[in-house]
Design brief:
The structure holds two protein chains of two kinds. Chain A contains 13 helices and 15 strands. Chain A is an alpha/beta fold. In chain A, the strands form three sheets. In chain A, strands 1, 2, 5, 6, 7, 8, 9, 10, 11, 14 and 15 form an eleven-stranded mixed sheet that branches. The two termini of chain A are about 25 Å apart. Chain B has two domains: about 260 residues, Thiolase/Chalcone synthase (Peroxisomal Thiolase, Chain A, domain 1); about 130 residues, Thiolase/Chalcone synthase (Peroxisomal Thiolase, Chain A, domain 1, 3-Layer(aba) Sandwich). The chains are: A alpha/beta, B alpha/beta.
């Protein structure tokens, strides 16, 4: 007996905020120009570390006061992306069925910046109740809660936190909810603000590049941190059709795996990453040859880029699709990276303009992938992939295809 | 009959770390919350006596578990307390399910879904202490990897070579229940064939101070705290971990695994609420009731502590509603968190307790019901968190093997 067809998940809207600016057009322009937004830090309190670099969001949009009351910076970034995502989907929250609207928004550190500020005061014996009250918005679940509150969403809710694969895992959760019929609409993605803990932690691990990161380059020296958020509106095909929405793409598949190898380092052979990619392709029912572009995790650390290249070789063999990493432009957005890079891959598929890897000058032979030509390429794609790998060996790949 | 079943359980709690201990504590209504020995200030996450004038705090401390029994000694030395608790509970659950070593599904088909409200607090505090005192260049590379919320789940994956999906989730006070909901989703979509689902959280001095500032702590805890705020609450904080091995029923039956209980429902929902609030009690009660197809089948409600007024009122409304639907008396109510201490992911521990009760087929004596539970009856764990996050779990009494 034939299996009933699974409900399809259409992407009908997307919103981003990053160091490139508020909204997808600003991000698209920075990527198109091959411009890096990684600069000396201005907002992050790292005044005692000369030359500290990061891709900071320099301006936040005006948002409704009741949305941002006692909100952490990570929450505000998520809400900024929500505004654009809803507008892009032409979706009025007031017409949504609250019980059928889900939220899957993750973060790796949530309101850690605000927790650090409270902790500094507590450390000095100065903390007060007002500051403490604000801390209820400091957990990694807060962006999901804020987005749900802003939307009035009463459907399924999840706040994954799987380090740098968080945003992609949130998309996988949304895909599963749509397929299982638990929601008609899901707002999914990730948000992360820079904080002392992550910057100093990667600095202590000697993982930060002293210059804007150069993924896959022979002279790469580490990653560059960034901040921002990306949210996607994911709808069941039936719901989108019923309201006459235009699909941007189909979220066709997701693959999740764990290296089970080391708390921070990837498996050198890339087997865990390859399992995620192969899983996403199988989930989407697509052959590797159909993938027209891959937005790589491509952090710029020697180990990650080499392991990812090995994984790409294992999955795609000698028929490698064009690959680029966009972290040289907007940095590594940690919990938001997976969602932001899925949006970039989506935009590349829609426009046919594949962004190149900013900072890549001399490709490392160890990373023998088919790099997008510097300056970008014009290629018509029917399907694209976005990879995200994180601490704890968490790997997640998502596949998008033309709807 | 539920499609997803529980085949293994593991515990690390103030009530003990084995089934017999926690079941006896539930049966006896044991209050295991106690004052921390004053000679053990490191358990609070800081050692500066000037900043910790009084370490005599009453809470559900986990003090007597032996992590080395389950964890490789070499790795144990480098493992933080949160990871030690989780890995111990995970190892116990896998062994209970008969999934130790290479038994059962391939390891790339076994996943993890772990909830935590706050993750590793003590090392976060220690890390920030150093950065605040010595500057941004003084971060400790051996601590930092432990500070992300998914660190403990990653350690468990490494320890037991679990290379299926590894999720860490957080959903306020319902983080443990949210992990169970995520695990059920992973099984329903076929992303894996077995999932270790659970939760872990630890106590720290900054957290206790924070709760005291909110006026949430029970009077004797608040009085011993340096903030000394007047408190009318009854919340006694705790720590611990619990893991449950979930499988699809046919898979469990095929490998002749012991079915401890079924999971009839595990979902997450929202109710309108501000981020620091729980939302309307009547809306929460409606969600509690709606997770069961036949609410009259609920024999026992495992609820949170009475300290949180909204949650408490929602549970009372639910009980009133259920009492009118059952032919005999309404469901019984227990509040185990008042005995082992409340923590963000303790819904996993409450759910594991529900599975123990379902498996033995008899309610705790204090519930006043002596006849056995019958297959198809349910135990409801009311997951309820701030910002209107609600994640009820409905456990089904198993049928004959």
């Amino acid at each position: 007996m034939a299996q009933p067809e699974r409900e399809r998940a259409w992407i009908t809207g997307a919103g981003t905020i990053s160091a490139a600016g508020i909204g997808l057009p600003a991000l698209r322009a920075a990527l198109g120009d091959g411009r890096t937004c990684i600069r000396e830090v201005r907002h992050l309190p790292l005044h005692d570390v000369p030359g500290a670099l990061a891709a900071e969001v320099l301006a936040l949009p005006d948002l409704p006061r009741n949305w941002v009351r006692r909100a952490a910076r990570t929450d505000i970034l998520a809400l900024a992306a929500l505004v654009e995502a809803l507008a892009s989907a032409r979706l009025d929250p007031l017409v949504l069925d609250p019980a059928r609207t889900g939220v899957a928004v993750g973060s790796s550190t949530g309101g850690m910046l605000e927790i650090e500020n409270w902790y500094a005061a507590w450390h000095a014996g100065l903390s007060g109740r007002a500051a403490a009250t604000r801390l209820w918005s400091g957990s990694v679940a807060a962006p999901a809660e804020r987005v749900a509150l802003a939307l009035g969403a009463l459907g399924p809710r999840a706040a994954p936190s799987t380090a740098c694969s968080t945003g992609a895992v949130a998309l996988a959760i949304a895909l599963d909810w749509i397929r299982l019929g638990r929601a008609d609409v899901v707002i999914a993605g990730g948000s992360d603000a820079l904080c002392r803990m992550t910057w100093t932690g990667f600095h202590a691990l000697r993982s930060l590049s002293p210059e804007p990161c150069r993924p896959f380059d022979r002279n790469r020296r580490g990653l560059s941190l960034g901040e921002g958020a990306a949210l996607l509106v994911i709808e069941s095909r039936a719901h989108a059709r019923a309201r006459g929405a235009r699909p941007l793409a189909e979220l066709a598949g997701a693959g999740i795996s764990c290296d089970a190898h080391h708390p921070t380092a990837p498996r050198p052979d890339g087997l865990g990453a390859a399992a995620a990619m192969a899983g996403a392709l199988a989930d989407a029912g697509l052959d590797p040859a159909t993938i027209g572009y891959i937005n790589a995790h491509g952090t710029g650390t020697p180990q990650n880029d080499a392991a990812e290249a090995a994984a790409l070789l294992a999955v795609f063999g000698d028929r490698q699709p064009p690959v680029s990493s966009t972290k040289g432009t907007v940095g590594h957005l940690l919990g938001a990276a997976g969602a932001l890079e899925a949006v970039i891959a989506l935009d590349a598929m829609l426009s046919g303009n594949l962004p190149s890897t900013t900072g890549l000058v001399d490709p490392d032979p160890v990373c023998a992938v088919r790099h997008v030509t510097p300056g970008g390429e014009q290629v018509a794609c029917q399907a694209v992939m976005s990879n995200s790998f994180g601490f704890g060996g968490n790997n997640c790949s998502v596949v998008l295809k033309v709807a | 009959m539920s499609e997803i079943v529980v085949t293994g359980l593991g515990f690390v709690s103030a009530w003990g770390c084995d089934e017999a201990s926690v079941l006896a504590a539930l049966e006896g209504g044991t209050d295991a919350c106690r004052r921390l020995p004053a000679d053990d200030p490191r358990r609070l996450g800081r050692v500066d006596p000037a900043l910790v004038p009084d370490t005599d705090l009453r809470a559900g401390w986990v003090t007597d578990f032996a992590p080395s029994l389950a964890i490789d000694p070499g790795r144990l030395r480098r493992m933080d307390f949160v990871s030690r608790m989780l890995v111990t509970a995970c190892g116990a659950a896998l062994a209970d399910a008969g999934l130790s070593g290479d038994a059962g599904p391939p390891r790339n088909r076994v996943g993890l879904a772990i909830g935590s409200r706050l993750g590793n607090q003590r090392e976060t505090a220690a890390y920030l202490d150093r950065v605040l005192e010595r500057g941004g260049g003084a971060g400790q590379p051996f601590l930092f990897p432990n500070l992300v919320l998914n660190a403990a789940a990653g350690q468990a994956a490494i320890e037991f070579s679990l290379s299926g999906p590894c999720l860490a989730v957080s959903l306020a006070e319902a983080s443990g229940e949210a992990a169970l909901a995520a695990a059920c989703g992973m099984l329903a979509t076929g992303r894996c064939d077995a999932v270790v689902a659970g939760g872990v959280d630890e106590l720290s001095l900054p957290l206790i101070d924070l709760l005291a500032m909110q006026g949430l702590l029970a009077p004797d805890v608040a009085a011993s705290n340096r903030v000394r705020k007047r408190s009318t609450g009854r919340l006694v904080p705790g720590e611990g971990a619990a893991c449950l091995v979930l499988e699809r029923r046919p898979d469990a039956l095929q490998r002749q695994a012991p079915v401890r209980a079924g999971i009839a429902s595990a979902t997450t929902h929202g109710v309108p609420a501000a981020p620091w609030d729980f939302g309307r009690a009547d809306a929460i009660a409606r969600i509690f009731a709606a997770c069961a197809d036949s609410p009259e089948s609920i024999a026992l409600v495992i609820a949170g502590p009475r300290a949180l007024a909204t949650r408490c009122r929602a549970e009372r409304l639910l009980l009133e509603q259920l009492a009118t639907q059952r032919r005999a008396a309404g469901p019984a109510l227990v509040r185990p968190r008042e005995g082992y201490g409340d923590f963000g992911a303790c819904g996993a521990l409450d759910t594991a307790l529900a599975c123990l009760v379902a498996a033995r087929g008899r309610l705790p004596a204090a519930c006043g019901r002596s006849d056995p539970l019958v297959p198809g009856e349910h135990i409801l764990v009311t997951g309820c968190g701030r910002a209107g996050s609600v994640a009820p779990v409905l456990i089904e009494v198993p049928g004959p093997a």
